[in-house]
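Structure, all two chains, one model.
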Amino acid sequence: MADTIDVTGAVAAKAAGAPGAGRRRGSAFPRYLATKLVAAAISFLATLVIGFVLFSLMPADPVQSITRGRPTSDAQMAQLRRQLGLDQSVPERFFHFVTDTVTGHLGTSWEFQQPVSSLIGDRLWPTLLLMGTATVISVALGLWLGVRSGWRQGSWLDRIATGASLTLWSVPTFWLGMILLITFSVGIGPLPGFLPAGGMSDPAITGGLDHVLDVAEHLVLPCLTMVLVVFAQYVAVMRSSIIDELGSPYLLTARAKGLRDDDVRRRHAVPNALLPSVTMIFMHLGTVLGGAITVETVYSWPGLGQLSYQALKVPDLPLLQGTFIVFSASVILMNLVADVIYRFLDPRVRAQ
Amino acid sequence: MAQQNSYLPTVPRGPGRRHHLEKFTMTTTTPLRRTGRKAVALATSLLLGTAAAIAAAPGASADDGGGTLRMPIAGIGIDSMNPFLAYFAGSLDVFAGIYPALNTVEQDGTAKPYLADSWTTSEDKLTWTFKIHKGLKWSDGKPITAEDAAWTFNLIMTNSTAATANGSLVANFASVTAPDDTTLVVRTKQPQATMLAVSVPASGIPIVPKHIWESHVTDLKNYKNDSFPVVGYGPWTLTDYKPEQYAKYDANKDFVLGAPKYDHMIQQAFKNTDAAVAALRSGQLDYVSGLNPVQYKALKGQAGIKAYETVGNRWSGIEVNGGARTRDGKQIGTGHPALGDVKVREALARAIDRATIVKKVRDNLAKVGASYLPPSLPQYAWEPSGSDKFDYDPAKANSVLDEAGYKKGSDGIRVDPKSKRKLEFRLGIHSDDDADAKVSTYLAGWFKEIGVKADIQAMSSSKLNADLAKGDWDILMDSWSTGPDPTYLLGIQTCSALPDSKGEGGSTDSFFCDKNYDDLFLRQQSAFDEKERAGLLQQMQAILYKANENIMIYNANGLAAYRTDRVDGILTGKADSTGAYPPQPSLAQYLNAAPANASSSSGGNSGTVIGASAAAVVVLAAGGVFLMRRRSSSDDRE
């Protein structure tokens, strides 16, 4: 196995983002963690600056957008500009933005005239529920199919799984969503629909278990759409990693020990082939909060993706910046977690 | 401008399109194996959980009988539940149901009593005295008095935060007082003919209970008005609200204008009309509105559903930049100079085949546009007559341009003799609007026939608005709707709506500015005789029509549908009726709606649901058990 490490060690180290000098012993965990934390903080600050600059450059007049169609006098619009801080210079606004963010204030949304943190808070749980469930299911389904397809490359299961997953991957999300929605909520031909057409719950149903079941029922279609569209990437990555392992001598050794084929796969091949998938899962977990605008729109799911799209239309800068901060923070945090976990999963990261 | 039913662009699906297939291997396998197995177990249990949930959840709203009216949340949603701050139609619609107003507006545009039983004006037309209905109570039992109304108006007049949403409606108020519990006296600075549109449901000022709101004045800006049930008065009491999800109401059976025929109402948020239509068909909703022609035609033949048209309360057309300038006359922006020539604008107006657009884009579910005010305000309607009409006539359009000296170049595009620039215009359209895309394609083709090139530029609404305000545009596609009082819609065409000398502020919509128009605008504000006022509004529309800076193309009919097996008494109106003021549903629609008698419901669904779900559970469970057994047995064998 030593020769395999030699071939791939460099790539693994790079992917894990380990610091350059590779001579230190692996026992310096606090130091490792500290460097990672500093790096994460720097990335976060950089995204703050980028976010502010990008949003400030957006060509638009938010006051016009907010008041359009409502009888609004000049005085009201001027007052609104003052209230929103639009009369301040860009450096002034940047200063306030940074100090507010660092002290944990996300400002007040222009469009909803409410604290950004409460708007985000309201929508965090629905997004986590939808994206979390969809991610868990697509990871489980994707990896399971990927392992089996790769192990029996060219088998009927492989051909069906690869074909189906790639087809679904190429389908536009909103289109698939609409088709599923019509099929399962309205019904087609003699088949009656039986799932709700949108929303997160039936407001008429209240009380403990009934409510939980009702939310679960509402979750089925959006979750199914997400899973169908994204599980292909796990299939593809897992499948090719497994195929890479197929010829490895250690599998021969395992078989020579007398292990059943299933056990060779489960105990030896899969663990070795899992790292690329772990990378991808964590990359995905970081973007979970961003939600899926299209799925949330098709199924009227009250999530964060929907909120940032609404903010973009005005544009509602405090809200946009708020969601931007939350999204980038979650990506950075997940990368940090991945870095730390690699250290435990992959001895080569530790060894540096 | 706000478009409700548009598809969103597909977004890229995260970082995964290109797979990084670096090679990784591991020396130890033990830790991962555990993790892997746990993950599988977790996923399986989740799958099973979900499936079980499907099986156990009750069938689609099976048991609401006649007690609950199920409506969609209006427009693009609710921005705030604070009536002093909210702008969105969805919020205004909620307030119409839970807060009172001084008076209502009937379908024909006349004012009818609500909180006020009657009203009188003084000789000089500056003082209005409203008699407030005696004996009405807020939902917490406290009496509703004239003082509540006076307090609400005064707060908006004196507190700039409270003026956020409705400040302009009281701009002409000098004082509002309540000499006793049933008398409200409003003194205005100038005579105000539109007084009976100031506090009406949906588009006017909702009156709030003083005893509740007094303590929130200091933090008005941050007050979300979210202690349920919300103390108010109206046909409904708001008992629960979840942002982007739903609003729940109980009926107020003692409502002064008649008791609602339902015991409860639920408004649910649907973020796209296709989903709302699906919800109507599956019984999750009783009513949908804001349909597009395709959705409307699809619902038209459905059993148990009635799809209907209402008279249009919106114009759709183009705005032409006839010379963007500030209030003091300074030119601003980058508009094409040739559009300042009324002849060029006339030629554009004559090049548009409106009937074809009505037919091809709106599937004949619209009226050919001409007048600035939509057909939902028949009392102010105006139509161009005979020779004044700029009908579709490309030959005439060409000859108008020829006579004015715009010669065609070798490429067939005309050249402006003064600026020497080709007649090449930017045509800004809303990138999220399907109708804009279709209409602009027709326009570009027709303009080409008269030697004018249109460069279609799709932009976001906010970018279009920003460019408009700066004068950086030639032609824009736009659309406006109005409530019962068209003052605002007419006001955005006055000179005072132009930006100030620094090029800021202003709510102008096309940089239109005309002395005669402004004079008429001032006169109509104090024209107390309805006939006289209508005459003035018609003259104003004639001026706008001749200028061709706002070229109307069509007035789309409102398209809506409801379930006849669930609900009765929906105000359906007609596309060509004498007017139905469409924002009215918030009050009149929900009041009129009654449970349908038809006993046949779509109850057949639930059996299938349970059957199908049970089957799914069995299959999944069996699969899970099989896998686990196989796994454990192989573990044993090892």
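The first strand of chain B starts at residue 68 and ends at 72.
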